[in-house]
């Protein structure tokens, strides 16, 4: 479990790589508990400078007047560089975040794919054609909305930042990335890559630091004209309230408590693999984690027994090893939070069917590991079934009929994702249309396409990312009239 080595501690302020004026934060390797890098953070003065640099760069005709294909060429180049450097970025992320190397490789591939997709889409985003209306000609044009703040969580570094930075830049904006305290290194690498790809320096800032200080300074800054936020619902609500005061558009990708549903006619082998991946990949630290499992009563006991058996076969350990399924959680404090939910489940009458603790001894004792945990016997209204745990904890619940299932699946404040396993495509379709979720997977889970809109309903968020509309979301429409 060797640390990958120390990394650039500099932040990026309007293209300038230099130490931040905020406090220096250690970046811990969650697999070892050791300091892997020291990262300086931004101060409020750095935020001011980054916003001013972004505004100036957006006014610069050299960027503003670039044709879409010229802007696309630079974004495509950024995608290429990410791809070329994918192994070293993946290793850096695994060290910073604890995700297994197979998953961090996929994150870098996703980030590179986002840049390539956005570059290609940008070349074919049409402006509306002018229309003659008697005494005048009218038309609409799209203009950059920014500067834009992109505030991201720690659980999918680089993919989250790319999902915001690529369309924001494509739309002609400066982008100011505020990565999470726990995993800033990949975002800093992304910033470097953007500069090397030839994006004008003033358009790129990466400002690590505390959420309430650096993040909130960005949100409140009068020069920031849109915030694209991914993170917890409580933070999202606060940012949304500030945005409302400023009359500023905001997109909020928030938390979840997503149901995975096994209908009685499902291919159970497929469903076991999907449910397991849905909750235990990324150690359950995924917004779309399928944390509530509903199984038809006729197959409930058999299915839960198979899930327990499969969970016990998962390989937990060194996230840099190729065969590892689960690495450590992000931090000791987060593990304590996950643990407290498992204790609560026992108090709420739940039966811990497997897991429910830390792996014992050996090489894992220094890292923040937690066993994959399956719990039955809880009331669907209990806190453990309602609140986002963001860890490797699955609650399994039986249901009897489709009406009850739909009501139970929808009975949380969240509405991010849902998985359905069934061989009956009509039933699966019917259910997919009735669940309150931004994304539904049928006979698969956690597949994400850069072209398909992503976002939540209810407390899971506001707005959509990805796809062609994801680029438009960083533009503002203007109507222009000519008297004839
Ligand atoms: P968080 O809300 O604590 O932090 C997210 C980001 O917001 C961090 O960069 C943080 O520093 C910043 N922040 C915190 N307070 C702020 C403030 N007052 N003003 C501005 N910025 C502030 O979330 P987290 O713990 O980093 O991430 C986990 C959460 O993110 C989970 O709830 C998870 O479901 C959610 N998430 C959602 C999606 C999605 O696409 N819907 C994806 C990944 C994670």
Automatic annotation (TrEMBL):
Could you list this entry's UniProt keywords, alphabetically sorted.
Answer: Oxidoreductase
Q: Which residue intervals make up region (Disordered)?
A: 1-28
The record ties this protein, via SUPFAM superfamilies, to: ALDH-like (SSF53720)
Q: The organism sits in which domain of life?
A: Bacteria
Q: Where is the signal peptide?
A: none
Classification via InterPro entries: Ald_DH/histidinol_DH, Ald_DH_C, Ald_DH_CS_CYS, Ald_DH_CS_GLU, Ald_DH_N, Aldehyde_DH_dom
Which PROSITE patterns does this one have? ALDEHYDE_DEHYDR_CYS, ALDEHYDE_DEHYDR_GLU
Domain (Aldehyde dehydrogenase): give its ranges.
Answer: 23-478
The entry's active site is: 253
So what family is this one in? Belongs to the aldehyde dehydrogenase family.
Q: What name does this protein carry? A: Aldehyde dehydrogenase
Q: Which organism is it from?
A: Streptomyces albipurpureus
């Amino acid at each position: 479990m060797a640390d990958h080595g120390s990394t650039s501690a500099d932040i990026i302020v309007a293209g300038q790589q230099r130490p931040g004026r905020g406090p220096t934060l250690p970046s811990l390797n969650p697999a070892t508990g050791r300091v892997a890098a020291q990262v300086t953070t931004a101060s409020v003065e750095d935020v001011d400078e980054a916003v001013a640099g972004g505004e100036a760069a957006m006014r610069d005709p050299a960027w503003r007047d670039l044709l879409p294909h010229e802007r696309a060429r630079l974004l495509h180049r950024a995608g290429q560089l990410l791809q070329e450097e994918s192994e070293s970025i993946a290793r850096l992320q695994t060290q910073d975040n604890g995700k297994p190397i197979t998953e961090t490789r996929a994150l870098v591939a996703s980030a590179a794919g986002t840049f390539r997709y956005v570059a290609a889409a940008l070349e074919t985003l049409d402006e509306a054609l002018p229309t003659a209306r008697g005494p005048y000609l009218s038309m609409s044009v799209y203009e950059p909305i920014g500067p834009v703040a992109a505030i991201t969580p720690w659980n999918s570094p680089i993919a989250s930042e790319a999902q915001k930075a690529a369309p924001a830049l494509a739309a002609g904006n400066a982008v100011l990335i505020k990565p999470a305290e726990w995993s800033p290194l990949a975002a800093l690498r992304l910033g470097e890559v953007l500069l090397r790809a030839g994006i004008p320096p003033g358009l790129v800032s990466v400002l690590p630091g505390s959420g309430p200080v650096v993040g909130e300074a960005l949100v409140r800054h009068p020069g920031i004209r849109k915030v694209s936020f991914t993170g917890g619902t409580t933070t999202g609500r606060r940012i949304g309230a500030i945005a409302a005061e400023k009359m500023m558009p905001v997109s909020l990708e928030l938390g979840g408590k997503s149901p995975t549903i096994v209908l009685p006619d499902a291919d159970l082998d497929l469903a076991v693999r999907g449910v397991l991946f849905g909750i235990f990949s990324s150690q359950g630290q995924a917004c779309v984690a399928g944390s509530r499992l509903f199984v038809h009563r006729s197959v409930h006991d058999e299915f839960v027994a198979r899930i327990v058996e499969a969970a016990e076969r998962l390989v937990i350990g060194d996230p840099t090893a190729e065969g590892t399924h689960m690495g450590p959680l992000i931090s000791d404090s987060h593990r304590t939070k996950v643990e407290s939910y498992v204790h609560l489940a026992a108090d709420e009458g739940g039966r811990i069917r497997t897991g429910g603790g830390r792996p014992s001894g050996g090489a894992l004792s220094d890292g923040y590991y937690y066993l994959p945990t399956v719990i039955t016997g809880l009331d669907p209204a209990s806190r453990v079934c309602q609140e986002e745990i963001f860890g490797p904890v699955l609650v399994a619940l039986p249901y009897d009929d489709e009406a009850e299932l739909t009501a139970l699946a929808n009975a949380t404040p969240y509405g991010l994702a849902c998985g359905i396993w069934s061989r009956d495509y009509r039933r699966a379709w019917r259910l997919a249309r009735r669940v309150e979720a931004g994304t539904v997977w049928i006979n698969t889970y956690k597949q994400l396409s850069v072209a398909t809109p992503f976002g939540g309903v209810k407390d899971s968020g506001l707005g959509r990312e990805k796809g062609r509309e994801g680029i438009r979301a960083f533009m503002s429409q203007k109507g222009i009239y000519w008297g004839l």
